[in-house]
Structure formats: C-alpha cells, structure tokens
Amino acid sequence: MSLALAVLEQRDGVVRKISHEVVTGAQRLGGSVEAVVCATGPVQGADQVGKFGADKIITLTNPAFAKYAPEECAQAIAERAKQGGYRVVVFAASATGRDLAPRVAAKLGVGVAADITDCAVAGDAITVTRPVYAGKALLKVKVASQPAVLSLRPNVFTPVERPKAGTPEIVAVNVAPGRVVVREIKAAPAGTLDVAEAQIIISGGRGLKEPANFKVLEELAKAFGGKAAVGASRAVVDAGWRAHADQVGQTGKTVSPSLYIAVGISGAIQHLAGMRTSKVIVAINKDKDAPIFKVADYGVVGDLFEIVPRLTEEIRKLHG
Fold first, then answer.
1. CATH number of 3-172
2. Crossing angle of helices 214-223/304-318, nearest 10°?
C-alpha cells in the first residue's frame, strides 16, 4: 500500500491547525499516511493528528529544532523520506512550507508541485490542480516523480475527522549544522489571526485614505468574534500603512477563506491572484467600475465609511 508523508508545522511546541489540512490532503491520495514534525521534544496536539488521517505521528527531535532551522529540518525530513520509501511528501503552502518544501525536494532530486488546490491518484502518477495566470485558469499537472513533493494551498483542504487514533513515535535524529541560523522569531500580537489561515478576511486598500482608518476594518473583524483577520493590498503595505505580513496578493499571501471582504480595493490583477479562490467574495467600493466587482459574489457601491460601520453593527447583532 502506498505511503504518504505529511509534514506538520509547529510553533512554540504546539501543532499548527494548518497541519490538519495537510494530513487530510495526504489521505486523499490513498494508502496509509505518516505525519512528521521537527521539534526538540513532544509536541502539543501531535496526538490529535491521528483523527485527521495520520496512521503514525513521528516527532523528529534535535536541539537545533528549538527555532525554525530550515537546513536542519530539510535534512531530517529528506532522510526520513528516503528511508520510508514514500510515494508522496506533502507540505502546507504556508510561509514555512514555501521555504521548506523546495529544500526537501532538492535533496530528493525532484521538483515541487506548489500551491495546489486539488490532488488525486491517476495510475502510477499523481495528478494535481493549481491556479495559474493570476488565478484566471486552473492547470492540471501529472507528477510522475518518486516521491512527489506537493504543497497545499491553505483553507482549501477542509480537515476531516475519522474515528481512529494514530500511533505516536519519537525519533532522535542527527543533523549537520546549517549555514542559516534563526536568531529570533517575532510573533504577532496575542489574538491576531494570520491572514493565510483565517476563515474570514477583511482587507483594505487605498480607499481607506489613511492608516488610522484601518480601525474601521478592525472593528468589523472584532464583530466576528475573533474569527476574522485584517488584510491589506500591496499599495497600502508599500505606503507603510500595514505590515507586509498582512498583504494579500501575488507578492503577499495567497488566501482561500470562506469569506473575503474587500474594502476600498480596486482589484488589480496582482491582488486578485492572491484571493480569487475565496469561497465568497464581497466588495465595497465607491467606484462602480472597479475590477474587483468582476470577481465579487456580492458588491456594494458606496462610501465605505458609511457602509462598514453599519455592517459592523449588524454583525454584532448576529453574534449577540
């Protein structure tokens, strides 16, 4: 039976929720699924990964994994992939996954099918689907390499639970010191959601006129009970209004939330490339000819400073 290796992510000793999507995506390819995570010791939440399709959860331990160590992690995962004879190695197309997957693929001598939105087994090969041309088309790719290395777009592969627990295993590994040393990782403020993982995103553009006006969007995000993140277009990030971590688009983060609300964003093709696969898109803009309306499921033409506060009030009523 074919094996899939699902690479989990952890932060501060806790498995990230995006890892559940990786395991679910790996299970779609048939056969048994083994999950692997790099850490200094037991990882909180690793024992829960079995519920999402992992038959075995392997924790690779080494002191170098105290902080994200790209070269050491890539070395350990590649060695595990070689020893296990896996048919496919699956990552999340997150910031970490985008950095780690190519490193592992290079060590295995194969390519990467990145940012995929679907996958299936087709005979002796794996077929994946990924958006191209700024999301205007979907490309089907047949991956014949062994193992196939894939990265999954966040919020596309909905985690599915099953009534089965995975078998945990802790393995100490030896890795050569890498040239890259991570000195510090600056975490987002407590309670702040990463736009790449949020199910609801409210993004703002130049229509907000000045950085202080992002408070209007932050109030709307709070109305969703802490389940929404605030994003931004490249124009406002380049202007210094928001951090680059908030940027949605071709040169920012690619997102696929259940709900994407674009406020004061015209809809340049680079921005659409990062959010076109959102399940429901709502656009609020005073320009009725703004390109964002061409991809929106719902459009509101009007003054955002009147519309958003009223929307915030109604969302608060719904959430009690």
1. 3.40.50.620
2. 20
Task: Return the bridge partners of 120, or none.
Answer: 127
Q: What is the pLDDT of residues 93-140, one digit of tens each?
A: 998 999 999 999 999 999 999 999 999 988 888 999 998 887 788 999
Domains 3-172 and 200-318 share a fold: yes
CA end-to-end distance (rounded Å), the chain: 50
Q: Is 83 left (phi over 0), alpha (psi -120 to 50) or beta?
A: alpha
Please report, for the chain, the start and end positions of each structural domain, with discontinuous segments joined by +: 3-172, 200-318
- Rounded CA separation 318/260 (Å): 18
How many of the other CB atoms lie within 10 Å of CB of 80? Answer: 21
Specify the CATH number of the domain 200-318: 3.40.50.1220
User: Which residues fall within 8 angstroms of residue 47, CB to CB, at 6 or more apart?
Assistant: 57, 165, 166, 168
Rg for the chain, CA atoms, rounded: 21
CB 308 within 8 A of CB 220: yes
Confidence of residue 190 (pLDDT cuts 50, 70, 90): low
Return the sign of the alpha-carbon dihedral for residues 209, 215, 219, 220: positive
Report the pLDDT value the prediction gives residue 1, as an integer from 0 to 100. 45
What's the CA gap between 127 and 273, in Å, rounded? 22
Q: Copy the structure tokens of residue 211.
A: 């950085």
